[in-house]
Write a structure and sequence with these properties.
Blueprint (H helix, E strand, L loop, with lengths): L9 E4 L4 E7 L5 E3 L9 E2 L1 E5 L2 E4 L1 H5 L8 E3 L13 E2 L2 E2 L2 H20 L4 E6 L5 H13 L3 E7 H12 L13 E8 L4 E9 L2 E10 L4 H20 L7 H17 L5 E8 L2 E8 H7 L1 H17 L9 E5 L6 H11 L12 H13 L11 E3 L6 E6 L6 E7 L7 E8 L8 E7 L9 E8 L11 E8 L5 E7 L6 E4 L9 H12 L1
Parallel strand pairs: 1-10, 10-11, 12-17, 14-18
Antiparallel strand pairs: 1-2, 2-3, 2-4, 5-6, 5-7, 8-9, 12-13, 13-14, 15-16, 19-20, 19-22, 21-24, 22-23, 24-25, 25-26
Amino acid sequence: MASDNKQPAVGIDLGTTYSVIAYVNDAGRPESIPNSEGDLLTPSVVLFDGDEVVVGKEAAKASVTELENVADCPKREMGNRVYHKQFGDRRYPPEALQAWILDKLKRDAARAVGKFAQAVITVPAYFDEVRRKATMDSGYIAGLTVQDIINEPTAAAIAYGYQEGWIDQAGEVDAPTTCLVYDLGGGTFDVTVMEIRKNSFRTIATDGDMRLGGHDWDQKLIDHIAQKFISLHGFDPRQDNGALGRLMRDCKAAKETLSVRSKTTIACNHGSNSLQIEMTRDKFQELTIDLLDRTDFTIRETLKAAQMNWSNIDRILLVGGSTRMPAVREMLASLSGKEPDSSLSPDEAVAHGAAIRSAMLSEHSNAAFRPAEIRNVNSHSLGVVAKEVDTGIEQVVRLIPRNTPLPVVARRVFKTHKLDQESILVRIVEGESKGPEDCSAIGRCSIWDLPESIPVGTRIEVRFKYSENGRLNIRVKLGGDDKRSFRYQLERPNSLTQEQLDSWREYIAS
């Protein structure tokens, strides 16, 4: 427990299916904090039980009988305006659902280590700018001061560096090491190539899939059993919330069993009809081979972006509970010729690394870590939508290519195309396509207070400042005149206003 005059250095792995909170203890070691149920892992599930909001294990258990009242995997919907399900007569933004999860983690942890206000929260490396902002907003709603947002693979690498004795007050490291972090969680997947040097963690390349995780392996089993049930009984159990809830629970349990046993049995019941199917590990791997192949493709793309091959990789770090599936280790060993390193706890490594990062940043922590240099890259190209002069067709002009080391400042000059133009609209997008329709809209900056009589062809300089934590600031300069320089925070169409954030913060704290 932290001493009275010090606040604990806290890190939070805000996961898709499970979340973990950790702190750096008085001995200077990262340690996971059990929740009020005594578990290290808290299901990232929210149950609306009338006027009561329940988070964690009991909410997850309610998925079997009250699926219509349960919000699971809200992390997958960060960046959307509202969660896809309605509860009662209300729709909730994903930021608020995540904030309830953070609030439980914070309250439970405070009972064990004392009150704290600051924390480092992790996000998938492939999270875009909008989702990173949404995560910070969730922290604010939960009453936290977010010290930093760091990538989950980076946090895992920090935990690994600590475990190997490379992070201490001297900041020593035996030799430069290049790691490939394979991070397969419940709902997201990342691959990151990192170089660890003395007191330095540098991301070389990253790629990922925001819609891929253990949840999708579960869904393959659910769909397989449902099809068998339909063939036998003519009814789809997925159409009944009770039957679906039980099937989701049993298929998830079967997946976990098949990680340690070669076969198991899955039951499906609805009304007077029932079905039992023996599922072998080989059959499960056959059903899910396309999902594993998607991770293989992402690995190859990441190595290509890093301009490396497997011979350049010293370590393969396994992170995320879904890496326990034997097929994952078998594939990586076959591809690389190396045995993957699972010495880190796949469930706790990210939170531990975040706690160490918190200690590095905190002036009031018991732990004494020398601040480490952490260099990330942007996971998506950033650009501006502009019209071609000759054709008038809109296209994306790239300012910051993907895998650019952060922080970075980029500038691009455009020109006005109308006489006496009264306003400027800067539309910012993320993505690799030249077509705006194939990219994700990040937000826009609107400038209305322009001087009169601006001639056609007046210079407009757009400057992006992209920070280490993946947050973006915009500056627009008109006609090369520093006095006509406008600094803007992005107007994000799906983001909550400050008034809404304050309202949700008060509501959740009540």
